[in-house]
Amino acid sequence: MTREQGLDGPAPEERPSPAGRRNKQGIRIDPEVEAKHEPRRTVISALVEHEPGVLAEASGLFSRRQFNIESLTVGPTDDEDRARITLVVEEPDPGIDQIKKQLRKLIPVIAVRELEPDAMRRELALVKVNAERPDQVAAVADMYDAKTVDSSPETATFEITGARQKIEAAIETFSQFGIREIARTGTTALARGTDDTAAPAPAESTANEANNTPYTQPADDD
Amino acid sequence: MSERAPPVTATEEQHDDQETQEEPAETTPTEDVEPATDAEPTPVTTGAESVVRALENAGVEHAFGVQGGAIMPVYDALYDSEIHHVTMAHEQGASHAADAYGIVSGKPGICLATSGPGATNLVTGLADADMDSDPVVALTGQVPTEFVGNDAFQETDTTGVTMPVTKTNTFSSEPDRVGTDVSEAFALASEGRPGPTLVDLPKDVTNAETDREPDEPQTPDTYEVQERADPEIVAAAAERVENASRPIMLLGGGVIKGDAAEVCREFAIEHEIPVVTTMPGTGAFPEDHELALEGAGMHGTGYANMAITHCDTMVAVGTRFDDRLTGGIETFAPDAEIIHVDIDPAEISKNIHADYPLIGDAGTVVSQLAEAVDESPQATKWRAQCQQWKSDYSMAYDTPEDEPVKPQFVVEALDEATSDRAVVTTGVGQHQMWAWQYWTYTEPRTWVSSHGLGAMGYGLPAAIGARFAADDDQEVVCVDGDGSFLMTLQGLSVAVRENLDITVAVLNNEYIGMVRQWQDAFFDGRHSASDYGWMPEFDTLAEAFGAEGFRIDDYDEVADTIEAALAYDGPSVIDVHIDPQANVYPMVPSGGDNGQFALTEDQL
């Protein structure tokens, strides 16, 4: 079988090769100070138009771009035309930047912000346990400030709110009685004090933020 | 186009457009149509009329589509409009034609389809427009709102299906709002980074009464586009350019979409910076210029890929650093500081880290940069090196008389026989790469291809759309492959019906050639499902459609046949029987090092 001979010119091994490299994120690697990009967990809040399809658009974006989302909550705000989406994501810094930028591109999205590590974060869980040892169950509930929502001869159901770690600790402690069912809402969050969570601000300088998001430490309550 | 009937003037009966489709226009009584003494439009009375009025207000002259149940009210309103509707043979063709229309004209191309299969057939063209940031507006019929969600006849969740492949889409649910939804979709398709938008039109909404005129095309308040880049980063980038010793400019499709080719050319020429283009950026810089290194990437020229690999400063404008351009990220321009100009902040540092992120409109930002750069970089040695690479890695090929016609020769002959402003459309595969490599592009909006999506079948419908957008003196040539042509050749019926002066050159090797080439290189030559072994006679087939058919088997037929096909006043098809063993080189294997491009199969 004859084959096309191709083109003339120096073969690959005869060509000069540059010394540099980039890492998987497309960042040039300086062997002296190679930045490691480990995934970190953070909260992103988005103010969106309260209209059908926004949630589908946002969640579709995350699945098709393979962003690692730990939880996503959505609910109305004081303005009936607007809703707030709160995301907990776990990604390396370039991934977190992409999530914010891709979210901003969605037309119904008004504002996007990554919250500071000290932001208030809360989650609610309903935990239904076996109530064979009611006194001990009540003691554990007391320990975690859990409210009794429902009780029957066989079961007791508690409502626990707090940061993720507290809820996980509570669930672990409750597990000694035998957990029948759990439902969790996922984290919702607001910035502290007068700091706006994600508000329609005067056009922020996306240029400055494009590469230089100040990298924050994960909050210890998270 | 000189062949079409002259545009309907304001004083003529408004049904003239439909006469070409042999509709009994004169017998249809039309109420409310004044003998049209001025441009004062009649008030809208239905949602559908409001939709069509929105298109008219936006200056739409052509639309491409296919009729069907749920879109009928819109077509009925279109019947009274001066918008020239081109009835396509398949909805995929409608979306490709609209896409090409958008590329060539710079204004959104319009496509229409009915619900269900009509809408799903549009999807390939929408995905193509989304990948290549082409301005397209799709209007789809939908079942009446009371049936939505009940799996009604020809119901598809069109906004759901198209969400990932459109810039934005809307389910239009209110008759008073439907026209404005279309206006907004039109504005969004072209403002900022262009892309396809879609408005889903339930039949009860378009049928409903309304007197609401649509608002002017306007983007919503939540849509912000940054025009000018941060001056501090511009200043830093300018300093980097001044101090560069191995600079290049990398011009992407954004340069063409942003009408920034002129300012980029001036900048490159003033500072003598060698220029590389991406495939969608083809035509942004004249390929016959000394500074031109032509296209880079998987099948880019050797010299472009050497320059991109060894540069120390890259001014990248309007490019998303697609993997077909970069090859492996680790080895992409590893010594270069990247100045990245893009209107979409999300493209900055998505694939390649930008050392100087310049967000804004391509023309505006390059002008800012041009203003900030005082001294040209000292790069005499580098330019000499680039010229050396141009001769080291020449694209020259052999044309042995005892072998079948080489495809490269045919592309060069077509280029030779046409003007500099000729528009070239292609399908996807080997022929596309030859048409890219061996045609010398000098003008923006003359290269029309499916880049990011790589949709075979794009070429013919794109030629139809391009023909309506191009000037009369611009030839439209579709360089197609046999496999690609076979996917959408029903579009010939449209070209004949509309009497479009287009020339299709099918580079026929009776293979899915690019797959065959990869099978030879990476799959031990096992030609699984790539060897057609038989193809219809495309010249005869063209004649059956009423087009003019030609055939080329030998070198001595090439020039005369091309001349005759181009001279034919209407659609012509040349079935060019090329060397079936011809391969596309240079080639960077998927994820490979651009600097290590193969010139022959054994280098892969």
CATH homologous superfamily grouping of the domain at 40-118 in chain A: ACT domain
Query: SSE order of chain A, as H and E?
Result: EHEEHEEHEEHEEH
Residue runs with pLDDT of under 50 for 5 or more positions of chain B = 1-31
Write down the CATH topology of the largest domain in chain B.
Answer: Rossmann fold
CATH architecture of the largest domain in chain B: 3-Layer(aba) Sandwich
Tell me which oligomeric state these chains represent.
heterodimer
CATH superfamily of the largest domain in chain B: Thiamin diphosphate (ThDP)-binding fold, Pyr/PP domains
State the distance separating the first and last CA atoms of chain A: 65 Å
Q: Could you describe the largest sheet of chain A, including whether it forms a barrel?
A: 5 strands, antiparallel
Q: What is the general shape of chain B? A: globular
Tally of DSSP helical segments of chain B: 23
DSSP strand content of chain B:
5-15%
- Judged by helices, strands and strand pairing, the structural class of chain A is alpha+beta
Query: For the CA atoms, what is the radius of gyration of chain A?
Result: 24 Å
Report Rg of chain B.
Answer: 25 Å
